[in-house]
Every structure is written in C-alpha cells, then in structure tokens.
Amino acid sequence: MAESGQLSSLILWGPAGTGKTTLARILATSAGFEVRSVSAVTSGVKDLREILLEAEQLLAQHDRRTVLFIDEVHRFNKSQQDLLLPATENGQIVLIGATTENPYFEVNAALMSRTTLWRVLPHTARSLRQLIDRGLRARNATASEEAIDAVIAGANGDGRSALTTLDVAIALANATPTAGETEVTQQNVAAARDGRIYHQSDDTHYDQVSAFIKSVRGSDPDAALFWLVTLLDAGESPRFLARRLVILASEDVGLADPLGLVLAESAARAVEFVGLPEARLNLAHATIALSLMPKSNSVTMALGRVTGALQRGASTDVPPSLRDAHYRSASELGHGEGYLYPHDFANAWVAQQYLDPSLRETVFFEPTSHGREGPLVEQWRHRRGDDTQENQGPPVD
Question: Which residue of 49, 194, 197, 215 is 20 to 30 Å from 367, comparing CA positions?
C-alpha cells in the first residue's frame, strides 16, 4: 500500500517495544506523505484541529496528503476519537494509530470501521539480536555471547527494553576502561537489570514452564509454587507467567470453577499494577488457588470440536428465525419469523433450533460433573426441562 501511494488508515496493535511508531514513520515516508505525530497522553482537541487544518491546506494547495500518527490512540476519549471520523472518511488525512490495548474494547466502533487492524507481534530472538548488534556497532562496543543471550532472554520480545538494558550495560562496562573496544559481559547485563541473569537455555526454559503448567493442572500446589519461583528467580517475565495462568484458568479449570478465570485475570492485572518483587505474591496466590481448584477441560474439548466441525465444512447458514429482523424489509425476507423469545416461557427456555438443520444432532459441549460444573449443568438441564415436557407447550402468561 505504501509503495503504491495508496496508504489507507490503519491501527497498529501490539505490545510495547515492537516498533509500531517506527513502522508508522516508514509507511508514511515510503508513501510520500507528510507526517504529523501526536501522543494521546499529552495532546487534546486543539492539537488535532490544528493538524487537521494544516492537512487540509496541504492537500488543497500542494496536493500532498498527511499521515496523522497517534501514539496510544486508545487514550483518546470518545469525543476526541469522533473528531477524527470526518477527516478519515473524506481522505483529508490517513490515520495511523498505535495501541497496546485491544482496540475492539478501547477504540470507537465508528473509527474501527474506517481503519484496518494490523497485529504487531513481539520481537523474536533473531530480530532482537539484530537490534543488539546495531546498538553495539553504534556505541563501538562488543559483547560476549552470554551477555547477548542474557539481554534477549530478559527483554521478553520488547526491543526498547533490550536496547535500554544494552545501553546501561555498555555504560557500566565503560566504568572499568580497558584497551580497545568496550566489551559487555554477562555481569554487566545482570547489573543493568536487577542483579539477576537469565541463565536458562531455551530447552530448560520451556521444560520448566511446562512443568509449572502441568503441576497446576495436576493440582499439586507445592510443585507448582516451586516451578513458579524457579522461573521468577531465573528472570522469567512475570507478565508471561500471568498470561499462562489466565490461559490455564479456562483450559484446565474451566467450568469446574468459573471464578478461576476471574482470579487469574485479577492476578495478571495486579502484576501490571504492582510489579516485581511484590507481584511474586500475586502470582503465588493465583498459582496455589488454581492448583487447589477442581479441574475440567470441557471448554477446551468443546472448542476443539467446533473448530474441527468448521474445518470439515460445517454449514454456517443462520436459520431464518434467528436472522436480524430489525432493519427495513427484513420481515419481507422472512427474517425472525418463528423465533420464540425464551423469556416468554417457563424457566426462560423453549425448544428451538439455533444451528443449521444439518447440525441438529451435533453435540459440541460434553459437560463433566467436576466441581461447580456439575451443579451448573444440572441447573441448565432443569431449566431446559430435559426430563419433562414442561417447556414444549405454549408461552406462559
């Protein structure tokens, strides 16, 4: 798009330190557009109006389009985001927004519909090594392989974090001058962070993470806590461990205790809010609690069955009774005809088909009786009147 000069508005969504700002500048300059940048943290409506006016004048007088880059676009409130709608709609500007938050929750739907969404993934070990090599050349320094591996391991895919650690490590290495180039050691990297060195090999790292998750899944709080502390002491990112616990809460605890996900998500937010070293308490709390909870993988299995059915070509046609009937002429198409409103029936349930007839007999969710899932399923079956015909009759007055 940039090389053809047909750049359109877009949002770059990804974690910190992955190059969203740099990518936006590359796209704008490659397309030959003017670039104006603002931060949603420090800019307001007045700044936006000035840039929009300038962009309008550039387009009218010099036929040059403007890219407006907004960092942390999710921090703009609704009125500020709404101000961008006409300008992006009529092509007055090309908006490039960058955000670390899920834009489906944080960015107005109207603005999302006028942009395309691009995921920016964390750096790989290879790309981090390229960044580190460039940083070393720029500072006329070298580093041992152990030092480079330690920087990469501690960065957690964040290029900015890697370069910041490297910069401090070089400064520390320069404090003990030697003849020739400055060489960064593993000890310099450890001192540039918090005194710890991420000493694991890749195999050890993944093996210990696997042992951690399997210990929680196996309801062994002692082993789970041991592997948690082992990983933290080795320099593992607390964010990474928090994310794994959030995944496990749905994958392995699931409906056996639906509050497991709430607990894990709260721990993840606490990690962001508190930070190390105190966040170790939050992670230990969640690890032990999830270990003690009953386990069910019915959610995981149901998700897999649905995914498999779709891959095998299951029909995604929506039955006419379930189709949207709120717009003009929908009733003429038969949309919504025959739909039964569950709240008009006993227990807010009535027998009707919610899938294409070809899937009528297909069962995706097969519940267990573990933990709270058993009572939940029994209540669900009771509401449906699976053992009676009470909900097969006319609506309740």
Answer: 215
